[in-house]
Design goal:
Strands 4, 7, 8, 9, 10 and 13 form a six-stranded mixed β-sheet that branches. A three-stranded antiparallel β-sheet has the order 1-2-3, with no helix packed on it. A two-stranded antiparallel ribbon has the order 5-6. It folds into three domains: about 80 residues, Orthogonal Bundle (DNA polymerase, domain 1), CATH 1.10.150; about 160 residues, hpI Integrase, Chain A, CATH 1.10.443.10; about 220 residues, no CATH class. It has 23 helices and 13 strands. By secondary structure, it is an alpha+beta fold. About 5% of the residues have low confidence. A hairpin with a 5-residue loop joins strand 2 and strand 3. The chain starts with 7 loop residues before the first helix and ends in a 5-residue tail after the last helix. Helix 2 crosses helix 4 and helix 17 packs across helix 18.
Length: about 550
């Protein structure tokens, strides 16, 4: 096929109005038309020949609907903008592009998706697409200078700024970490060659690997991050039309995005009835998301109206025996779970916690936190209420004459609360402690780390000493020697070791099954202590906070 050549002046017009990639895409269609019409000059080609050309592309070459629409756009641009010939392309019959229904990704899945990407550059680019509602073509154009004061200036087709959007505190912190590591100079995400943009194909590959690791459907693509951006802003109470105008959408695209997760509700009453108070209450029930509920603030008058018009709410509270203390306990424990989560994931928060509490060692952070929250150990372990011994710290001496004598200290000495109480021992390391050695013992077999094996031996020795030195029934006394009325029994006590994190086994492309299976085999063969990682303890505490009613 002879390559079509434009003169210098025409080439200049193209470069003024199109970016390089668009021009290359359009030029491919000009070459095909040139060949189809016997290499005639494009200016001399008639509209009927163009009609025949499209008939050939659709019926003979079997091009997809999306490709045909690009070809139409290319020829329309050539004849209208460059050659100034007024051909009417509207009457050319083109196949309809069937677009998939726009669906969003659940917030928990997006969090898991981002957490599964260990490379800071790859995680940052995927996070920014979601944080700002970007297309791949937009994220690769972002320059270092486009981000100021937690705002991103988004560039359009011709590299001009088309809109500004806030990207939030978390994204700024992530980008700070990324920039410190990679030090980009021009484009925020640079390609392999100096000064080049990050490859869109690379971004899709990163997303697809992460997608598989968290179990997202094959049909989910990078584009669904933008759908999710829209849906999650809807959940926060923003109007769809405002979100899409912010994204610079045209009318057709606004109509399409409005269908995300079938976002359409039948209008079941007339506003005229609201004026004259003729509306039926069952006809105007609104669906409010959890995000919107968290942001709702009632005045005293609104609260009074809510209770008066919904007496079934009070009835429900009474029937379910939900007390004021239950509500306080739930609020307290949710706050403590938030602190727990930040201690696990936010290094700056962890260090600030150490500073605020005048702590020098990492283990002491967890010691202080768990002293304030002994419920975490009981809830989610064996579903038995556990509490510290009355008037005593979580850390106790267990191998001396009594709990106040000198001897071996254990990080957590708890009692189970039931008809009969028994002792329960807890050894606490840190969430950063290695679970396995850095090198395998044999291929596919990994040994426990020095810290893990040492901690197991330590707590087993503590339990053994306690059995020899503590009687089978203990009468608990206060600091002045007075009996508190508590009795605790000691018969083969349960013990727990809290150590490390399962994230140790997650690499860039998924879970290292050899390492994970080695760890699981080790702990499943342990009767005492039961080994739990910090992230598992957090998830258990979270589940039980959400699903179990407990005492304040």
């Amino acid at each position: 096929m002879k390559k079509l050549r434009f003169n210098i002046q025409t080439e200049k017009k193209f470069k003024e109005k199109l970016d390089t990639k668009t021009y290359q895409s359009y030029k491919a269609w000009y070459d095909q038309l040139h060949e189809y019409c016997g290499y005639k000059a494009l200016r001399t080609i008639k509209i009927q020949e163009i009609n025949n050309f499209f008939d050939y592309l659709i019926n003979k070459r079997k091009y997809s609907p999306s490709s045909i629409h690009v070809a139409i756009a290319a020829l329309r641009f050539l004849y209208s903008e460059i050659l100034k010939i007024g051909f009417n392309f509207d009457h050319i019959k083109t196949p309809i592009i069937e677009r998939e229904n726009p669906v969003s990704i659940d917030k928990k899945k997006i969090k898991a998706l981002l957490n599964s990407i260990s490379n800071i550059k790859q995680r940052s680019v995927i996070a920014l697409i979601y944080a700002a509602g970007l297309d791949i073509s937009e994220v690769v154009k972002v320059r270092v200078s486009d981000i100021k004061d937690a705002k991103l200036s988004v560039r359009g087709k011709n590299d001009e700024i088309v809109r500004e959007t806030k990207i939030g505190k978390f994204m700024m912190e992530l980008l700070k970490e990324y920039r410190n590591s990679y030090k980009p100079s021009d484009f925020l995400f640079e390609g392999l060659k100096d000064g080049s943009m990050y490859s869109p194909t690379s971004i899709r590959n990163v997303f697809n690997r992460a997608k598989k690791s968290v179990g997202l459907d094959d049909v989910i693509t990078v584009r669904h991050l933008k759908y999710s951006y829209v849906k999650h802003l809807q959940d926060e109470g923003f109007k769809t039309i405002d979100i899409l105008k912010h994204l610079g959408m045209n009318a057709k695209t606004i109509e399409y995005y409005s269908q995300i997760d079938s976002e359409y509700r039948e209008i079941e009453f007339s506003p005229l009835d609201t004026i004259y108070n003729k509306k039926q209450s069952e006809s105007i029930k609104l669906e409010i998301t959890n995000e919107q509920i968290e942001n709702i603030v009632f005045t005293d008058y609104q609260t009074k109206q809510l209770i008066e018009k919904n007496p079934e709410l009070i009835k429900s509270f009474i029937e379910n025996d939900i007390s004021h203390s239950d509500i306080i306990a739930l609020g307290y424990r949710k706050k403590q779970l938030d602190i727990f989560s930040k201690l696990l994931t936010d290094k700056e928060f962890f260090e600030q916690f150490k500073t605020d509490n005048n702590i020098s060692k990492t283990e002491q952070v967890w010691q202080i936190f768990f002293e304030s929250n002994p419920w975490i150990f009981g809830h989610g372990l064996n579903y038995i209420f556990s509490s510290p011994l009355e008037g005593k710290k979580l850390e106790q001496v267990v191998s001396g004459y009594d709990f106040n004598a000198s001897g071996k200290r254990v990080d957590g000495l708890l009692k189970t609360r039931g008809l009969i109480s028994s002792l329960c021992f807890v050894e606490i390391k840190t969430h950063r402690t290695d679970l396995l050695k850095s090198n395998y013992y044999r291929k596919e077999s990994w040994s426990a780390s020095y810290e893990l094996s040492g901690a197991i031996a330590q707590i087993q020795r503590t339990v053994d000493k306690s059995l020899k030195s503590i009687s089978s029934k203990i009468e608990i006394k206060d600091s002045q020697g007075n009996l508190t009325g508590e009795q605790v029994f000691l018969y083969q006590p349960k013990s727990y070791l809290i150590i490390g994190s399962l994230s140790e086994f997650v690499c860039e492309f998924g879970v290292n099954e050899d390492k994970y299976s080695s760890f699981e085999i080790l702990r499943r063969n342990m009767l005492n202590p039961e080994i739990l990682t910090f992230d598992e303890l957090f998830e258990r505490a979270k589940y039980l906070t959400e699903h179990i009613k407990y005492e304040a």
